[in-house]
Amino acid sequence: YKVLQLLEDSVGGGGGGGGEQPRWILKSPAHLGFVDSLSHGFPGSTLIWTHRDPTESIGSLCSLFRTCQETFYAGDVDMKEIGQQCCAFWEAMLRKADMVFSADEGMSARTQHVLYRDFIKDPITTVKKIYDGFGWDYSDRYDTSLKDYIAASKAKRAAQAQGKVKLHSYSLEEFGLDGEEMRKRLAWYYEKYLGE
What we know:
mainly alpha; two-stranded parallel ribbon; 10 helices; P-loop_NTPase; Stf3_sulfotransferase; Sulfotransferase
């Protein structure tokens, strides 16, 4: 996170011109395992942890790892090994983040937990709840911008669906993973964060 600190410093503390402080958006789930370092590098930072069913997200991670191996490795790709590595990696990231949030009340207070399914079902309401929870101003200008973005995204997805183009296709099974076994392995996460 030193690189992000340098980037922020290079633009004068991250000032956005209009008196607004821009927000860093780090979307990679890999950050979960390093939220303590992130908090140390950016004290007082606010975090949004989006919780998604691991049986959905681990398959995507496996697909990414497969693509990387196919691109940069000349040998055969062992799909089952990728599945096991990704499952172990994901579990470690979830446990580390849970440990940090459970032990650090200050960080826990600066964090909003969002269910991915709620975000997909009603993004406007979910974002408004996030803004309200952090005490941020949800302006009319931002509302319009967000609604425009959502409309454009829906139109793009509809066009892709019409052309039967699927951007990203994968399954747990092709990586030797079983959804029910994963649910048992990560039962603590489902119960604590997904309310299942």
